[in-house]
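Notes to self after the call with IL:
- keep both proteins in one doc
- input above output, always
- annotate only the second one for now

Protein 1:
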Amino acid sequence: SATGAGNWDVECTATTQRGIAKSDLQGRGVTSTDALLIRDVRRASCTYETGDAPVTLKLMEEGLACPFGGFETGLCQTVLPANTSGTFELLPE
């Protein structure tokens, strides 16, 4: 899931048991939350672009390694700084 204020975008392309799945999480304007639900993810590549405010990403899928470093208190999450772009991958544990 992603939560943030302003305009932001997270796009992911995932490889699943059924093939390729694409998804786009977006925030427009006021603080908003969007969630991506893809079952049986084997791996995923994501790109992001944040606006004038930071965006918090949380990974809640079991079986995937936390791409943001270690799990903090059982949660895999990170805060993307404002006005940045980049990529991350989701891989099996």
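Protein 2 (the one to annotate):
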Amino acid sequence: MKPRNLEPKELIEKLKEEHRELPALIDDTVLTYQVGNLSGAFPILVQIRDLLSQHTIDEEAIILKIIIDKLNKEESEKYVEIMREHVAIMKNVDDAVESTYTGWTETVPLLENLKRISAEHHRKEEEMVFPKVLELL
């Protein structure tokens, strides 16, 4: 995957939209699984993985680059720390996908955790990172 070819302001709006979409996708995966439709739940989980993979690439290649280019190391550190949370988020997604191969018993708790940690992460991005990038443009 490559970063999307969007202007930073347009990209930020797209990222915010994805922040709003993610909880519903996670809920859809859980509900589809809980009604016994594993073959329907797995593609939604893959959609979540793909969405978050692209999302992470965009934020790190474009959003974080703006911060690093425009701020000194000390000023940018808190924003870099927020972006480092992508590692834990993507690990959680990978663990959720992997858990489906062993019977889904751990998948729902992993998805519930993903929903929680991504909501907190997205809050930080929307309250701190995105406003700073818009200010720096």
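Annotation: Residues 49 and 77 are 27 Å apart (CA to CA). The two ends are 25 Å apart (CA to CA).
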